[in-house]
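Exercise 3.2. Students should predict the tertiary structure of the chain below and write it as structure tokens, then compare their answer with the key that follows.

Predict this chain's 3D structure.
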Amino acid sequence: MPKRQPDVRKLAIRQRWLVWMVLLSIVMQALPFVLDAYFSPSAGARLLYMIAIFAQFAALLLVAVGAIFIMLADGTHVVVIVLAAILLFAPCGGILILLLINRRATRLLRAAGLRVGLMGVNPDEVERILDPNLCTTCGYNLTGNLSGLCPECGTPLPLTPPTVPQ
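Answer key:
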């Protein structure tokens, strides 16, 4: 059975989304401490604590869903996805799995010629690099160009679209 090629567009979008969900999860983990500092114990404060606990759980679920979507986009085997999803809810296993998933996604995105920053890949850069009708250097629309050079910046044009190495 041939190995499935990763979908670089989906991988870039999902990695960026996962980073935002991890940040949301960190904020939700700090929320009870903020509530404790600013509210005295009362019925209203207990309701806020319940909402904060629900928000923490929802953020963790969003992180798990994001991690699963990244593994689907990069071609990970289904058995590995199931095991990783289970480990995501383990205290130390979750952060380890997230680091491994992010490392693999970053490696695949860089192999496709994308610059990966702290918050993932800029969506404009994904389109500029992966769209065969745009110059990979300046983003100029090359539809109908047969000269072999970008008229805007002079970059030589590839004959075939780039592929992602495994």
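Discussion points: The helical segments are 8-38, 43-73, 78-87, 93-111, 123-130. The two ends are 15 Å apart (CA to CA).
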